[in-house]
Design a protein that fits this description.
The chain is an alpha+beta fold and 487 residues long. Helices cover 33% and strands 15% of the residues.
């Protein structure tokens, strides 16, 4: 997520006693698919429930905090209590994983090589949330809104939770993206979380009803599904004393941004209506384009005679399937938005082609694809015989030296991904150096001294955004590594 303040981010380790086993394989959990600014919490039934090392668990996620069920075996707690924070974060993680796997038919095998994603519902004071590959965890925090004096918990928002799980899911299938230095790759990672949160949100009956009430089926109108992280966004703006986000949200999918080379953009402009190269900022371009496709799906469903609620729900289901097909067809290493847009078109064309014209027109309108682009110019989608779950084993690291004037970073070696099958660099050396120059000039690479020890909080800047990379010293040689904390 995008944030403005950071004060403390402790490393979390399971230290609490094992919770009592659940009485049944399923239980009701407190859950808010949005957040309390726009919707009162409800409940969600977590299936496949079991006892984890510390708290309740499912096959692919576990709560890293002790949480005892109520007398009836359920985990329903009053809003604002520690039990609610834990129940909401864990159940939203479990729900997102289940929705993705069932909706796409894709089996998640985590990039961090553990069977379960750890859920830390309140990891300290910070106006943010993040996925940490190194520890295999999603981490949520709390902060006090200086205007309302209310304590805000990022894990209380189902949208924020789905966004962070989206990072973990994309990392499972395309681990090289978190070794990539191009702004497009980092921004697509952020957009993937937002897109998943969007299609997840309208699966909830109460959210769907409110969206229909707000839009009447016209998805160009502002609505709670398009606006991500309302409570967090309000707190960001109140903390900064100005409208940093553009409205009462962290980001909105309703925008009119058009493509611009991220190297030509300011990192994070003061004006929220101006596109920047910072990955959360630049992600809004791709998310806006995907939302245009989603809106087109709703319109097609309405034209076919569906009522607004059914049209939106079916567009959500199809939108998720499209995301799954895109992941399968997506570039494995280095890419631009243009490359990803071509993969999006090809992924639909090779699966019936029902939405090829819609996708093509949207991405032309956004100037991500050129006006003369034709879907027929694309070869069939293919990523070799390797399965998606074999991706991590196929990624190795190579080093590109920073030759030229890079200030304190001159002479450092930059880690880049290499495909073991092709025995070649995934990025051109000159592209890597150009990307590094822009990142260094924008303050997105953390410089360290020899023997300097770092913890997680050092890898996050004063505005709460994780650095893109960090210079570490290995046998006396400065090496720039990609930061695998993504917010």
């Amino acid at each position: 997520m995008f944030c403005t303040t950071h004060t403390h981010s402790p490393r979390i380790a399971p230290t609490q006693p094992r919770s009592a086993p659940a009485k049944a394989a399923q239980a009701e959990f407190s859950q808010n698919p949005q957040d309390k600014v726009v919707l009162e919490p409800g409940t969600y039934t977590v299936q496949g429930l079991k006892s984890g090392d510390v708290g309740p668990a499912v096959d692919k996620a576990r709560l890293n905090e002790a949480l005892e069920p109520n007398a009836d075996g359920n985990f329903i707690f009053e809003q604002g209590t520690p039990g609610f924070h834990a129940a909401n974060a864990f159940s939203a993680v479990a729900r997102t994983i289940k929705f993705f796997e069932e909706g796409t038919g894709m089996n998640i095998s985590w990039a961090f090589k553990k069977p379960q994603l750890d859920v830390n519902p309140d990891a300290g004071e910070m106006l943010n949330a993040y996925y940490q590959r190194g520890e295999g965890s999603v981490n949520f925090f709390h902060s006090t809104d200086p205007k309302t004096t209310q304590v805000v918990h990022s894990g209380d928002s189902g949208e924020v939770v789905s966004h962070e799980v989206g990072h973990a899911i994309l990392d499972a299938f395309r681990p090289a993206y978190l070794m990539n230095w191009r702004a497009d790759a980092g921004a697509f990672h952020e957009s993937f979380g937002d897109m998943l949160a969007l299609v997840m949100s309208v699966q909830d009956d109460r959210v769907l009803a409110r969206v229909v009430e707000q839009t009447g089926g016209d998805m160009t109108k502002p609505n709670m599904a398009a606006n991500l992280g309302e409570e967090l966004g309000v707190t960001i703006n109140n903390t900064s004393g100005k409208n940093r986000t553009g409205g009462d949200y962290t980001r909105t999918a309703i925008n009119s941004f058009k493509w611009a080379d991220p190297k030509s953009l300011e990192n994070n402009p003061e004006d929220p209506n101006q596109l920047g190269s910072e990955v959360h900022n630049y992600s809004r371009l791709w998310t806006g384009a995907f939302y245009d496709v989603f809106t087109g799906l709703v319109n097609e469903n309405r034209a076919a005679g569906m009522e607004p609620a059914q049209a939106i729900r079916e567009a959500s289901n199809e939108g998720l399937r499209m995301l799954g097909r895109l992941v399968k067809a997506s570039p494995r290493f280095d890419f631009t938005y243009k490359d990803m847009a071509k993969a999006f078109v090809a992924s639909d064309r090779d699966n019936g082609g029902k939405h090829v014209d819609l996708i093509t027109q949207v991405y032309k309108n956004r100037e991500i694809l050129p006006a003369d682009f034709s879907p027929s110019s694309l070869p069939p989608t293919q990523n070799g015989s390797r399965s998606l779950t074999d991706e991590a084993a196929a990624v190795q690291k190579d080093l590109v030296p920073l030759v030229g004037d890079f200030g304190n970073f001159s002479g450092a070696l930059v880690e880049v991904p290499r495909d073991v099958d092709s025995a070649r660099f995934a990025n051109d050396d000159s592209d890597v150096r150009a990307d590094m120059k822009h990142l260094i000039d924008s303050g997105r690479i953390l410089y360290t001294e020899p023997h300097q020890r770092l913890n997680d909080k050092d890898l996050i800047d004063k505005n709460g955004n994780p650095y893109i990379g960090v210079l570490r010293w290995k046998d006396g040689q400065p090496v720039i590594e990609r930061n695998v904390i993504v917010a």
